[in-house]
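sorry for the late reply, my laptop died twice this morning and i had to redo everyting from scratch. anyway the thing you sent over, i finally got around to it. pasting the sequence first so we're on the same page, its 65 residues, then the predicted structure underneath. double check i copied it right bc i was rushing
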Amino acid sequence: MIIIPVKEGESIDRALKRYKRKYEKTGVVKELRARQQFTKPSVIKRAQHMKAIYVQKLRDAEQNM
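ok and here's the structure:
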């Protein structure tokens, strides 16, 4: 359960914004969407591999500059 202490004089909009940010970081929505359909382990591994290649290319390009 996410608890957001509201400080004295703080607006509700500000507290709601902090709540939404904290909720987004927990990854609840992302996990729920992922559970809606089954993804084969080989597809997951392939996606992770492609992401690793992409990140490595970005790092290599950054170092060469």
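The two ends are 45 Å apart (CA to CA).
thats about all i looked at so far, will dig more tmrw
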